[in-house]
Amino acid sequence: MVSLFINEEAMQTIVEIVKSGVVLVSDGAWGTFLHEKGLEPGQCPELWCITRRSDVLDIAKSYVEAGADTIESNSFGANRLKLAHYGLEERAGEINRAAAEISREAAGTGCRVIASMGPTGKIIMMGDVSENEIYDSFAEQAVALDAGGADACCIETMTALDEACLAVKAAKENTRLEVICTFTFDKTLDGSYRTMMGVSPADMAAALAKAGAAIIGTNCGNGMERMIEIVSEIRRADSKLPVLVHANAGLPENRDGTVVFPETPEMMAYLVPRLVQAGANIVGGCCGTTPEHIRAIKKAVEEIGEM
Ligand SMILES: [Zn+2]
User: Fold this and answer.
1) CA of 221 to the centre of ligand 1 (A)
2) Which of 32, 148, 231, 287 could anchor a disulfide with 101, C-beta 3.0 to 4.6 Å?
3) Rounded to the nearest whole angstrom, what is the distance from the C-alpha of residue 193 to the centroid of ligand 1?
4) 71, 63 Cβ separation under 8 angstroms
5) pTM
6) Residue 88's CB: how many other CB atoms inside 10 A?
7) How does strand 193-194 pair with strand 186-187?
8) Distance of CA 110 from the midpoint of ligand 1 (Å)
9) What is the pLDDT of residues 69-87, one digit of tens each?
10) For residues 120 and 158, is the Cβ–Cβ distance under 8 A?
C-alpha cells in the first residue's frame, strides 16, 4: 500500500501538488555558480551542459541537497536565436536535451525539473524577428527539454506579452511539459509595477491565462519584500492559477565596483510566510541566491506547515 501511495504522489503534476495546499520550494541562482566554477565573460553558459557536464551537475545537486522540491536547468539562453550569438544555433537541440538530462539526474525521483527558458533578446514589435521565428525557436527548445526528461518548463524573465504568449503556446502545443511563465517587474516612481515593456502584473495574468499557462508568476528584478507586493497584484487579477516566485537576494548594490546582492538567507526566509500569505505557491531564488538561501527558505516553508 505504501509504495502505491508513493507512486501516486510521484504521478501528481506540480499543479495538482500545489492545489492540494502544499507550498513547494524551488532552487536559486545558476549564473553566479557557473562564474565561480570558471565561466568567463563572453562564453556561452549553456554550452557547459556539454563541455563541463559534471560542473553543471554539481550545481543542480547542490540545490537538491539544500531541499529544493523543484530545480531548474542550465538552459536559460539556449534558444536558437540567442545561441546564434555564439554560432551555436544548430546545437540548440543537443544543448537543451543535455541541460534537462543533467537536472533530471540530480533530481532523482523526489524532485521535479522545471527547465529554464529565457527570452530570445528579440523584440517582435520592433520588427527584429517574425512571430513564426520566435514560436519555432521556443518549440525547438521545449521539445528538447521534454526529451531530456524535464517535468515542466519555466519561461522566465519575460517582459513582453507577445513573446511570452508565443513561448507558452510553443511549449504547450509541442510537448507534455507543464508550462510555467514568469515576468520581471520594476517598481515605478508612482509605486506600481511594470516590466521594461510596460506590462503590469494584471496584464500578465490575463494574457498568460488566455495563452494557457499552468502556473504564472514573477522572477528576478526584486527582493522578497517587493515580490510580496507583486504577488498581491497578481492575486487581485487572477485568484485561480498557481503562482511561482523566484526572488533576487534583494536589490543589487554596487560596492567598490562589484555588484552585491545584500539579502542573507535569514532575511529572505523571514519574509517567506508573508509571501505565501500573499498567494505564492512555489518559492525560490533568482540572482544572488545560493543553496544556503534555499535551505533557509525550505525551513521557513516547513515551519508554515507546522503552524
Ligand atoms: Zn535574476
Assistant:
1) 6
2) 148
3) 17
4) yes
5) 0.95
6) 18
7) antiparallel
8) 25
9) 999 999 999 999 999 999 9
10) no
